[in-house]
Amino acid sequence: MNIKTHLAVLDDEADITQLLATYLGNQGYRISQVHSGKALMELMARDAPALVLLDLGLPGEDGFSIARTLREHWHCGLVIVTGRGDAVDKVVGLEVGADDYVTKPFDLRELLARIKAVLRRITPPAAPPVPPQAEASSTLRFAQWQLDTDARRLVDSKGDEVALTTGEFDLLTALVTHPGRVLSRDFLLTATRGRDGGPFDRTIDVQIGRLRKKVEADPDNPQIIKSVRGAGYILVPRVEAG
């Protein structure tokens, strides 16, 4: 049986949710249309989607607060689709955990490509069986941290888990699997979002800042993830598997 991937579209304009439902439904997705934050939370509780398309401009509601609630309680993709194209709104959207930010008016084909990119990142592909001796450890240790790439978990030396957004996890994985190497912003953007960045794309800088607040003892004086001026970022500590 072919199980369709479930997507939710939250927008106060019914014509937009219907447009997206029709287009994405024809692409093989199962779509739920909701028009308020309350309706979305009710949907999440009974039939959580794999990804949410969230409009920020909801009458009487704070779209950023809805995004924060999603990130705190559910592991799902989150793409903000909004008419608010101000750079500050984009930065805040990424800071609250959005996987991507699309401004209206949007091209349906581009939006579909972005949705697919996010779904690829949050749904690891099925791997063919391998002999036990050939299996690589999914646990990577660095500094006082332990990253489990299969379980998508980051725990500290006491065994306490630190919550990461999808983007933060993908970014940390890229750094931890390339220790001691300077990784450019373009490399990290492609590794985490499946696309190249423009000359003014500061997405990675925003996510690095968020990540440092979670893994660094002093985020203002980072010792784990360091900046290399004009080149990118590097994970300094030694990484051990197992």
Structure in words:
With 242 residues, the protein is of the alpha/beta class. Helix content is 38%, strand content 20%. The strands form 3 sheets. A 5-stranded parallel β-sheet has the order 2-1-3-4-5, with helices on both faces. The protein has a 5-stranded antiparallel β-sheet with strand order 9-8-7-6-12, covered by helices on one side. The protein has a two-stranded antiparallel ribbon with strand order 10-11. Helix 6 packs across helix 7 and helix 6 packs across helix 8. Mean pLDDT is 86; it is low at 125-135 and 195-200.
Total strands: the figure is 12
Q: Please list the strands of the largest sheet in the order they lie side by side.
A: 2-1-3-4-5
Overall residue-averaged pLDDT value: 86
The Cα radius of gyration reads 19 Å
| N- to C-terminal distance | 37 Å
Into which percentage range does the β-strand content fall? 15-25%
What is the count of DSSP helices, taking H or I runs of 4+ residues? Answer: 8
Share in helix:
25-40%
| Biggest pleated-sheet summary | 5 strands, parallel
User: What are the low-pLDDT stretches, counting only 5+ consecutive residues below 50?
Assistant: 125-135, 195-200
Q: H/E element string?
A: EHEHEHEHEHEEEEHHHEEE
Q: Classify the secondary structure makeup into a structural class.
A: alpha/beta
Q: Outline, from the CA principal axes?
A: elongated
Pfam families: Response_reg, Trans_reg_C
Protein name: Winged helix-turn-helix domain-containing protein
Organism: Variovorax rhizosphaerae
Keywords: DNA-binding, Phosphoprotein
